[in-house]
């Protein structure tokens, strides 16, 4: 039984010197993060395919049971819209190969304009992916959340490929007006869709976006703690990524979510103690 938790990134300026040692060379930052969390979103791969040498440093900094959820590059998902992207896909797969089993899944994040009429392209794309990896799909078109027929069609496509539907739960963010600059910015950029919870596979993935207020973030994830506890009891292995608009407290919040689930499922192993931000002193 294992619950993976993490954040949207492994290097964030507000964490330096508070949660993570500072200064740290780039080749050590992921190692420090991995002492706090056992998973991370691979958002950087959305913007550009990393070099194989870079990915090899990621593997060296993480234990074999650490997990990456890596976004496919936007050239594949947003620019080519899953069509005629074989060359880009092959380059990406070759680059991430050094991670081996650390790749929890490859993540197909689709643009908001990708709707029910595009499901044929998604089905064809998923059929052409190598079976060595698992795949997760994030959709943002409101029809998939508000039209039962569209949702069933999407589930049918995903089920045929053994892929998971990744919910991005922003309901807590949009529950009341923003109170910080980061929240105001998030209001203009994040998808405003209903919460969706059912799992399609034995490895469900959740992206949860709270508020910059810690208490409101913790209060808002209550339904997810219950849902994740239920998945663990069913024998599933969930992964949960905790976001806030400024992400200043996301690192300890991810661990706190793990603790909240463990309170419901006591047999869940605790996370190891993180590396201290400052070396111990004699006095």
From TrEMBL:
<dbReference type="InterPro" id="IPR002763">
    <property type="entry name" value="DUF72"/>
</dbReference>
<dbReference type="Pfam" id="PF01904">
    <property type="entry name" value="DUF72"/>
</dbReference>
<protein>
    <recommendedName>
        <fullName>DUF72 domain-containing protein</fullName>
    </recommendedName>
</protein>
<dbReference type="InterPro" id="IPR036520">
    <property type="entry name" value="UPF0759_sf"/>
</dbReference>
């Amino acid at each position: 039984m294992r619950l993976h938790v993490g954040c949207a990134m492994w290097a964030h300026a507000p964490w330096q010197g508070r949660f993570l040692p500072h200064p740290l060379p780039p080749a050590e930052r992921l190692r420090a993060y991995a002492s706090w969390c056992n998973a991370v979103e691979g958002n950087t791969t959305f913007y550009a395919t990393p070099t194989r040498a870079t990915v090899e440093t990621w593997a060296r900094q993480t234990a074999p049971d650490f997990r990456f959820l890596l976004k496919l590059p936007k050239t594949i998902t947003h620019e080519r819209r899953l069509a005629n992207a074989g060359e880009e896909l092959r380059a990406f797969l070759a680059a991430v190969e050094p991670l081996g089993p650390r790749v929890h899944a490859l993540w197909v994040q689709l643009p908001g304009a990708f709707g029910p009429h595009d499901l044929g392209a998604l089905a064809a794309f998923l059929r052409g992916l190598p079976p060595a990896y698992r795949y997760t799909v994030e959709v943002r078109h409101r029809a998939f959340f508000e039209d039962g027929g569209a949702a069933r069609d999407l589930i049918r496509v995903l089920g045929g490929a053994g892929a998971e539907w990744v919910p991005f739960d922003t309901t807590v963010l949009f529950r009341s007006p923003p109170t910080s600059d980061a929240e105001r910015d998030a209001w203009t950029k994040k998808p405003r869709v209903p919460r969706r919870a059912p799992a399609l596979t034995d490895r469900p993935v959740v992206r949860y976006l709270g508020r910059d207020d810690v208490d409101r973030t913790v209060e808002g994830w209550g339904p997810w703690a219950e849902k994740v506890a239920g998945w663990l009891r069913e024998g599933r292995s969930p992964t949960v990524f905790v976001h806030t608009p400024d992400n200043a407290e996301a690192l300890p919040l991810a661990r706190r979510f793990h603790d909240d689930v463990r309170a419901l499922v006591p047999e869940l192993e605790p996370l190891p103690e993180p590396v201290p931000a400052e070396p111990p002193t004699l006095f």
